[in-house]
């Protein structure tokens, strides 16, 4: 049973992203959208947590939201960029979705 | 695949309403079915026809109405959340003794049971909010 975790707030604004990483199971997928995309950038106080999650989960970022914040091409290696069609595929390919609001 | 979408945030508040519209468009383009879009909490503000954003801004309410007209979407506004925020259809305005209504074309007002049914009937429930 795989789950898609959708996070939409910056890890520096709310604890939702950290909670998500603490609860997600191995084999799950995590998608950063809206302000959560800042979590994709390397060298922050949060980036080690995202890197640790990537050891047994797949981490995705919505490319349009990354670009809208001037962060295109700045996502850490290993994070997969998707468009809205890819976002839809992630919801279809996982058994269930959880939005960390 | 069959989807129900839950929108918990108003338009122009942050980005959730925009994200939901983009997701619905992408899902429809891929041939998926949108069983229902349910608007709850401040999300009910997506359904007023009286929004007039500046000319160079996006028209979120109109985008929902156009999607509903083009694809026959079922856009449902939670009645309790709507009444708190002054979103009324003609019947509710009359029942409450009010002099106007403001629901946008393509939307309808109903109860929370519609969200529960949407969750049961759809293969996936995707939530957008703040």
Report a brief summary of the structure.
Chain A has 101 residues and is α/β, with parallel strands linked by helices. Chain A is built from four helices and five strands, in the order E-H-E-H-E-H-E-H-E.
Describe this entry's structure for a reader:
The complex is a heterodimer of chains A (101) and B (130). By secondary structure, chain A is of the alpha/beta class. Chain A has one domain (3-100): Hypothetical Protein Ychn, Chain: A (3-Layer(aba) Sandwich). In chain A, 31% of the residues lie in helices and 22% in strands. Chain A has helices at 16-23, 47-53, 63-68, 84-93, and strands at residues 3-7, 29-32, 58-62, 80-82, 96-100. Chain A has a five-stranded parallel sheet. In chain A, strand 3, helix 3 and strand 4 form a beta-alpha-beta unit. Chain B has one domain (2-128): Hypothetical Protein Ychn, Chain: A (3-Layer(aba) Sandwich). The two termini of chain B are 26 Å apart. Chain B has a five-stranded parallel sheet, sandwiched between helices. By secondary structure, chain B is α/β, with parallel strands linked by helices. The longest helix of chain B has 14 residues, at 16-29. Chain B is 37% helix and 20% strand. The model of chain B has no long low-confidence stretch (mean pLDDT 98). Classes of the chains: A alpha/beta (101), B alpha/beta (130). The interface between A and B is medium-sized, with 19 and 22 residues.
Q: What labels describe this entry?
A:
heterodimer; A: 101 residues; alpha/beta; Hypothetical Protein Ychn, Chain: A; 31% helix; globular; B: 130 residues; five-stranded parallel beta sheet
